[in-house]
Amino acid sequence: MGAVVCEPRDSEASAASAGVRPPPWSPAASTSFLRPSSFTFARLLRSGCCLVDGANVTWRGVHLSPAGPTLTQMSGSAADVGGIAPAAGLVPTLRVLVAPDCYGDSLTAVEAAAAIATGWNQVRPADRYTIAPQSDGGPGFVEVLASRFGERRQLEVCGPLDENVQAEWVLDLNSGTAYLECAQACGLARLGGPPTPQTALSAHSRGVGQLIAAALRAEAARIVVGLGGTASTDGGRGMVDELGGLSSGQRRLAGVELIAASDVEYPLLGPWGAAEVFGPQKGADSATVAMLEHRLTEWAGELDAAAGRPVSAQAGAGAAGGIGAALLALGGRCESGASIIAEHTRLDDDMAGADLVITGEGRLDDQSLHGKVVGALAEAARSHDIPVVVMAGQVDLDRLAVRSAGILAAYAIADYAGSARLALADAANQLMGLASYVAARLGNRGPTRYL
What we know:
Layout: E1 2-4, H1 38-47, E2 50-52, E3 58-59, E4 95-98, H2 109-123, E5 128-131, H3 141-146, E6 151-158, E7 164-172, E8 177-181, H4 182-186, H5 197-202, H6 206-217, E9 222-226, H7 237-242, H8 246-252, E10 257-262, H9 274-278, H10 286-307, H11 323-329, E11 333-336, H12 337-344, H13 347-352, E12 356-359, E13 363-364, H14 373-384, E14 388-392, E15 394-395, H15 399-404, E16 409-412, H16 413-417, H17 420-425, H18 427-440
């Protein structure tokens, strides 16, 4: 893959000054340097042909610039969760790996990566950027993969409330692997409005079954289903029905490697199950959660019997409203969605060449550290002694928890914007502004304790 880089002019002065909040992005911010917009970055990423790397145009395999400063050359003594002190002077050129997850329904991972790179570039145009949007299996799973490889395909499927929707999936002809995403068929964004108790009860996963059937028609030898972000809590029953039932589905998938790419480790039932944990996020009130749990309990007996083992109790069975359990009963296995994306986007190679990792998601909380993108990246960066900065929509972890997870600093878009409402309504611009703000705070006045 290539690298699109913008070369700064030697005469350009830094846009940052200590303690000064950068202004919102403006196309007229500078006349001495061509600053690509986030939409330019997004188009390049979607084309699948380029990576952004801040100084000239190269192709993968060409040697990049000498390494930037080590971790101990960055300072950070702020008392808040954002642990980067205001800059007394800019750190020399850094190689920055920009690898966010999606931000709920506000920004896809590709859009978020473009916004971060654009904002950071306004303050530190000499830095080199590797753009590597990530996913843990939820919304954006297919888009991230399509931006790197494979053949993007479209299929009209049944949405969560029976209306037809256009779903995308990716077929990698070289490996015979189909990559599907539950949220494309039955995601919350497909409801056409806010979730309610009625939609929580009515939403189903039939469209996911139609995607699997399409992958089988394409003679895929391996089917990877990204889980997460669904409006349904039907335990995958609609998906199974579209495949002709449990026995028929098992026969049709015999000989096919079936993988559930999951971002959660919860079972199907109980206080940590699909209905109790995720039902309220899908519009379910307490009475609706109880009805969903009862329905799942009956279905769990059928799944366990068909599989010949208690798949409903396995980690990941509760993912995507219980679709994880159904995939396990059909002969599948669960794998980390973040790890799958990392493997297929060659994240290890990108990490090895980075001085700083920037990631983010809609909400940084305890769940972020267990099987999700931010936690996986922090763990990987720790082994390379590379600092990680998180820019999340909201931050629900204190500074001790952030540092214990191997994260140098965490910043909330809602805090920067002044309200969660503005952060959601103007997500791209606010994330660009936050990236500029954080870039301006990078200093070089002594050691930073990473952990």
